[in-house]
TrEMBL record:
Species per Swiss-Prot/TrEMBL record: Pseudolycoriella hygida
Reaction catalysed by this enzyme: [protein]-peptidylproline (omega=180) = [protein]-peptidylproline (omega=0)
Keyword hit for Signal: yes
Gene Ontology cellular component annotations, sorted alphabetically: endoplasmic reticulum
Gene this protein is translated from: FKBP2
Stated name of the protein: peptidylprolyl isomerase
Length: 139
């Protein structure tokens, strides 16, 4: 009986050690709604969006602001013309809606950073306002 308990215990320990292998957690995009809006048409892949935004580093320092420049950004969503955080974080939005997107480096500029404004490996926060949607069917 003692032998069986010992074997059982060794098997349990082996299972625990085996299941304890280190697995890398996939990075996640965090999306918060700052201003909700009801609508019938929501942004979808292929739509042409007009967006105002502010971008912040993890320490709260602002690195970009389209409001200050006086020009919103326009792009086709889901076409890889902007960072992945925007391609995913601005889907299913209504005109007038505002969101905060917290982006790990893998969804933004990765290990290279961007143009001296964003350091390598930076987690970024964007506050985005969707001004207008041109539906892909209307283009």
């Amino acid at each position: 009986m003692k032998c069986y308990l010992t074997i059982f215990f060794v098997c349990i320990v082996a299972l625990c050690v085996d299941s304890g292998t280190i697995t890398k957690k996939e990075p996640e995009l965090k999306i918060e709604t700052l201003k909700a809006v009801e609508c019938r048409k929501k942004s979808k892949i292929g739509d042409y969006l007009m967006v105002h935004y502010r971008g912040y580093l993890a320490d709260g320092k602002e690195f970009d602001d389209s409001y200050k420049r006086g020009h919103a950004v326009m792009f086709h969503i889901g076409q890889k013309t902007v960072i992945k955080a925007w391609d995913e974080g601005l889907l299913d939005m209504c005109e007038g809606e505002k969101r905060r997107i917290i982006s790990p480096p893998e969804f933004a500029y990765g290990d290279t950073g961007f143009s001296g404004m964003v350091p390598p490996g930076a987690t970024l926060t964007f506050e985005c306002e969707l001004l207008h949607i041109n539906l892909r069917d209307e283009l």
